[in-house]
Design a protein that fits this description.
Structural class: alpha/beta
Pfam family, one: Sulfotransfer_1
Distance between the termini: 74 Å
Family: Belongs to the sulfotransferase 1 family.
CATH class: Alpha Beta
Largest sheet: 6 strands, parallel
Keywords: Membrane, Transferase, Transmembrane, Transmembrane helix
Shape: globular
Protein name: Sulfotransferase
Helix content: 40-55%
Organism: Populus euphratica (Euphrates poplar)
Order of helices and strands: EEHHEHEHEEHHEHHHEHHH
Strand content: 5-15%
Radius of gyration: 28 Å
Bound molecules: 2-acetamido-2-deoxy-beta-D-glucopyranose
CATH architecture: 3-Layer(aba) Sandwich
Length: about 350
């Protein structure tokens, strides 16, 4: 005989006298309980999955499934076994290789990032190969160049040849990427190339670096040679002595333009397998480099670079007309650029 026990509160338990329950009623209760169980389970699962999505967004590692790629592309593997024309892969012939491209903008830490990647014994990141105009004059020369790189037939000081497990290069957005984005995204999806976006959050600091680097192209502050990257604090200090003037009238629109370019690039390649990195995060949080290695399917190693940062400390020390810049940005969406450290 069943008894109904109602717990009204901690102290009171009322025991009702048992009633006779018709079998039909019992069945209804049973079915109702089952439906409730299934519903609760599905709600739980949904919450778990949104929870993990938020986590992924938080760490800025975004690997979205490809919503508008054809089904064919979904089966393209990110793992490859290239067969170079110029050499044999010898003992590493059975090791898989991943293809990547670092999509970035000038003065956003991509040179430093690339030296870090290349300190991995299995990574060949071949530098800014599309800085040469001929190689990006039209889409067919771009494609030819890409084919050669991903077939491991492109040689630079970064080439690891036989035992490369990830091969790529860095590509500035203004070197044909934006212009030929459609064909390039198609190529990436067709050949299973992963994109590593590397941006800088503080676009004002980036602007200072662009202006100083452009000045040094002519001034050649280091014993008559132009250097974009340095390996000692003395060199860094010498380069940082130059303080650029920033045109405060154009400042906001210049910053906005850079921001829009980055957003467009992300949109163009939103169907490509990708990861988004920020220079500031890489500096502050070394575990980001592990995320990158995981993204490229590499055995995780400690990555090192000999490069030294050029503009250290408050930005106010690095700009000639700081007052104007401060006034131009105070109270705007870009105000935080005035304060940030990196
Ligand atoms: C692309 O440029 C190369 C080199 O300038 C040229 O030989 C080739 O004909 C061009 N291809 C197309 C499709 O325009
Ligand atoms: C990485 O390179 C080392 C040394 O060349 C090689 O022994 C190893 O198999 C490579 N690992 C992968 C995953 O290709
Ligand atoms: C520049 O020249 C000075 C003096 O000749 C030397 O001490 C210094 O190492 C040189 N720096 C570079 C970057 O070559
Ligand atoms: C800033 O740029 C604008 C537009 O090119 C120009 O008219 C103005 O003279 C510049 N201001 C300074 C201080 O160079
Ligand atoms: C990707 O970009 C296209 C436009 O280029 C847009 O229509 C689409 O909604 C975007 N998809 C995602 C997932 O952001
Ligand atoms: C920004 O502007 C506000 C009001 O216009 C002023 O009180 C504040 O001191 C300014 N901040 C800086 C850093 O100049």
């Amino acid at each position: 005989m069943a008894e109904y026990i109602c717990v009204l509160n901690k102290d009171t338990i009322i025991i009702k006298p048992a009633k006779k329950t018709p079998i039909l009623l019992r069945m209804i209760v049973l079915v109702f309980a089952m439906v409730c169980g299934v519903y609760i389970c599905s709600v739980c699962l949904k919450q778990i999955s949104t929870h993990s999505k938020i986590k992924i967004q938080d760490i800025q590692v975004i690997e979205r499934p490809s919503p508008d790629v054809d089904h064919e592309n979904l089966h393209i593997s990110t793992v490859h076994y290239p067969n170079p024309e110029t050499f044999g892969r010898a003992e590493c012939a059975h090791n898989p290789v991943r293809y990547f491209a670092i999509l970035s903008m000038q003065r956003s830490g991509s040179g430093w990032f690339e030296t870090l990647l290349n300190s991995h014994v299995n990574v060949s990141s071949n530098g800014e190969i599309f800085s040469v105009l001929d190689r990006r004059i039209n889409i067919s020369s771009i494609t030819q160049t890409l084919d050669k790189v991903y077939n491991l037939d492109w040689f630079t000081s970064a080439s690891k040849n036989e035992c490369s497990a990830a091969v790529g290069f860095k590509w500035m957005l203004n070197q044909g990427v934006m212009q030929h984005h459609k064909e390039i995204a198609d190529y990436f999806n067709r050949r299973g190339v992963s994109a590593i976006f590397l941006f800088r959050r503080n676009l004002l600091r980036r602007m200072v670096s662009v202006l100083a680097n452009s000045y040094d192209r002519h001034a050649k502050l280091l014993n008559g040679t132009h250097k974009s990257h340095v390996h000692s604090t003395e060199e860094a200090e010498t380069l940082a002595k130059y303080k650029p003037m920033i045109n405060s009238t154009l400042l906001i629109s210049d910053l906005k333009e850079v921001e829009i370019t980055a957003a467009k690039a992300l949109e163009y390649f939103n169907s490509t397998r990708h990861i988004v990195l920020y220079y500031e995060d890489l500096i502050k949080n070394p575990t980001k480099l592990k995320d990158v290695q995981a993204f490229l399917g590499l055995p995780v190693m400690e990555l090192k670079s000999r490069q030294v940062k050029i503009h250290k400390g408050p930005l106010a020390d690095h700009v000639k007309n700081w007052e104007d810049i401060n006034n131009a940005l105070n109270g705007t969406a870009y105000e935080s650029f005035l304060q940030a450290d990196y």
